[in-house]
Design goal:
Alpha-Beta Plaits; four-stranded antiparallel beta sheet
């Protein structure tokens, strides 16, 4: 489950992810974060665990004032626009983009993507795009 967590400035310095891990047994994979003391914080996370654990953890987040929303964007690879230049491949921090060294075809694994936008900023052919998801 990939989520966006928004921390109000009043709790941004609290050990909230620690409590998700230690109190609820949730595995927290931080995909992207912007946390500054005294300011609002934002994290994109993947939460892994049993349904009961996740439910209890989400209730905890709500109680402490963390705004939780599903990750509402995903990246799409538009193969018909891709020239195989591979400019995006080394910039992908999760290796969601890869190249077949024989065919020079670029492949994309959306399960590995953390929506960091590096590929969008790099691709001059606009072969990567953002798809809004409505949940």
């Amino acid at each position: 489950m990939k989520l966006v967590l928004i921390f109000p400035e009043t709790i941004v310095e609290e050990p909230i992810t620690y409590h998700l891990i230690s109190d609820y047994g949730i595995r927290v994979n931080i995909l992207r974060a912007s946390i500054d003391p005294g300011k609002q914080g934002k994290m994109v996370v993947e939460l892994l665990g049993e349904k009961v654990q996740i439910s209890q953890g989400l209730n905890y987040l709500e109680r402490v004032g963390v705004q939780v929303t599903p990750l509402a964007q995903k990246i799409q690879h538009l193969e018909d626009r891709c020239t195989g230049c591979t400019a995006c491949v080394p910039l992908c921090p999760t290796q969601a983009l890869d190249v077949d060294r024989e065919s020079w075809n670029v492949s994309f694994d959306p399960e590995k993507c953390i929506v960091c936008f590096s590929c969008l900023e790099t691709c001059i052919y606009h072969a990567m795009s953002v798809e809004e998801q409505f949940v």
